[in-house]
Amino acid sequence: MRFLRSRVCIPWLRKKRGAVFIFLLCFAMPARAEYRLDVGDVIEISVLGVPELRQRVPVQLDGSISYPLLGSFAVSGLSPSEVRAKIQAILPTKVFRQRAPDGRESVVVIEPDQVTVGVVEYRPIYVNGDVSKPGEQPYRPRMTVRQAVALSGGYDIMRFRTNNNAFLESSDFRSEYESLWTEFVKEQAHVWRLRTELGGTDTLDQTILREAPIAPSVLLQIAHLEDEKLKSRQTEYDREKAFLQSAIKQTDTQIAVLSDQLQQEEQGVKEDTQDLQRITELLGKGSVTVPRLTDARRALLLSSTRKLQTTAQLMFQRRQRQDTARQLERLDDQRKVALLNELQDAGVKINQIRAKLQGVAEKIQFTGLIRSQLVRGSGGKPEIAVVRSGPTGRERFIAEEDTELQPGDVVEVALRAGDAAVPAQ
């Protein structure tokens, strides 16, 4: 009998001890602070039986909300229950007219227990640092740092890298690097050719050729092509200049011939004029006939016409000679201006290529670091800090992956990877 009594009492004692333990545990756990509304939250206010008064209202920048019959009032810093109590105290004192389907209006009396208030959208959180997709994330109740990092794509020490394979990217960047170097050397050779055409005695910078990661055969080909361009353009310039000089000489010869012809024509006009005067005097004495006078006049008119034609041809040749001489003078000036403009453009292009080379070199270093991390593993434990708005302002504290977040928190993630070798540029 004693044995049976002990068998019955043991389970009862165990149940009593478990209940006492749970009671003490609940008493020892601190009560969770009630959520406080702030700018960015969206709450839903509804009145049972009055669907017209069910609305979602965001907390404005000034910490207030706007609701029918109540207008605007501040809610920032209040809990949803405090907002509900505030609305329950004011809304029943207002008169709300509800329109029936048949068009009639009726006065609705709102009871306090008909009003409900709940948060439907919390302020977003922000994740920054060594994650794949830093930025804004929607908040969910009891959300942890681990969940926020998962939504941000997970940890990533090289968050600025692209989504492509780092090994393939490195090959692409090196190819682009060598291509830019080729363009750089070509522009340097271009500048050398332009300065030589301008009358300079510059030589191609051998230091640049030695530093360029380009095959010697390619460098020789670039130099050879620029040298051929130089010879071709110089030959074309000399040919154009010789043509203009030859045209000037031909014009000078024609001017000399026309000048002699004009002198002869002037002498002929002078003789014909004297002959006409003599025949006119003889006609007055009756020694010659009228037809003889007419022939003298015709001869004077013909010689004067030839003189005018020769004078016009001489003026045309002189004007053409001036135009050709001016064109010869402009040939050098225009060539110089064109070469200077081309030289300026080449200098700008060299600076652009130099900047691109610097950028691609940094990308090569960066992808080399990524490759090193991929080979060695990212390593290191994440260092997590949370910045949270509190009663005294924004506070920053160290957190763990299982730390629960609050709306509006800013999560900062930093990974400390092992030593990574940076490839030489």
UniProtKB/TrEMBL annotation:
<dbReference type="InterPro" id="IPR003715">
    <property type="entry name" value="Poly_export_N"/>
</dbReference>
<keyword id="KW-0732">Signal</keyword>
<dbReference type="Pfam" id="PF02563">
    <property type="entry name" value="Poly_export"/>
</dbReference>
<feature type="domain" description="Polysaccharide export protein N-terminal">
    <location>
        <begin position="30"/>
        <end position="94"/>
    </location>
</feature>
<dbReference type="Pfam" id="PF25994">
    <property type="entry name" value="HH_AprE"/>
</dbReference>
<dbReference type="GO" id="GO:0015159">
    <property type="term" value="F:polysaccharide transmembrane transporter activity"/>
</dbReference>
<protein>
    <submittedName>
        <fullName>Exopolysaccharide biosynthesis protein</fullName>
    </submittedName>
</protein>
<dbReference type="InterPro" id="IPR049712">
    <property type="entry name" value="Poly_export"/>
</dbReference>
<dbReference type="InterPro" id="IPR058781">
    <property type="entry name" value="HH_AprE-like"/>
</dbReference>
<feature type="domain" description="AprE-like long alpha-helical hairpin">
    <location>
        <begin position="174"/>
        <end position="361"/>
    </location>
</feature>
